[in-house]
Write a structure and sequence with these properties.
173 residues, alpha+beta, Aminopeptidase, seven-stranded mixed beta sheet, 5 helices, 7 strands
Length: 173
């Protein structure tokens, strides 16, 4: 049986150069509000094709703050989410992009980019100067978004350089 691949890492050196957040007509940005747990879980389950509980991944953490969990809504319905997180190992100056997802029926509308950008703006408002993230090899559309927003691969595992070389063959820069 094959061992699961380790997570891949990406880093954005500076949050100073973020472009303005622009949403399509009919879309709006808001942060988490009490009672949004099920909405977040629905978006993440549809995005990752597995059940992840809000309490386990976000709500039970000492880093949880409602304003860090971003939602893009179509009308009043949240359809994409990303979290401006922090991790001890990244240091105080670096934010951590966490749990980015969008409902599949909204694919191709730029929501992944927009919600990621919203989370990066939140990090910058918290005086973070850079950002990191973890991802998987198969999340090519997400990796392309991250690349276009200035994230670059960080080689932490023995096989990361080889895996990134393979992935970059699919990314339209």
């Amino acid at each position: 049986m094959n061992e699961p691949l380790s997570k891949l890492f990406m880093h954005k050196e500076s949050l100073a150069d973020l472009s303005a957040l622009e949403l399509l007509p009919g879309y709006s940005l808001r942060h988490f509000e009490p009672g949004d747990e099920a909405v977040w879980e629905h978006i993440i389950e549809r995005s990752f094709e597995k059940r992840i509980t809000f309490e386990e991944k976000i709500g039970g953490s000492p880093y949880f703050q409602m304003a860090r969990v971003q939602f893009i809504c179509r009308g009043s319905e949240p359809v994409a989410t990303a979290t401006a997180w922090e991790r001890e190992e990244t240091g105080e100056d670096s934010g951590y992009l966490h749990m980015v997802g969008a409902l599949p029926e909204y694919a191709g509308q730029g929501l992944g980019r927009a919600v990621t950008l919203a989370a990066l703006h939140k990090m910058r408002s918290e005086c973070r100067s850079s950002a990191t993230l973890k991802t998987d090899d198969f999340r090519l559309a997400a990796i392309q978004v991250y690349w276009r927003l200035g994230f670059r691969p960080t080689y932490l595992g023995e096989d990361h350089e080889q895996r990134w070389t393979h992935i970059m063959g699919f990314i339209q820069k």
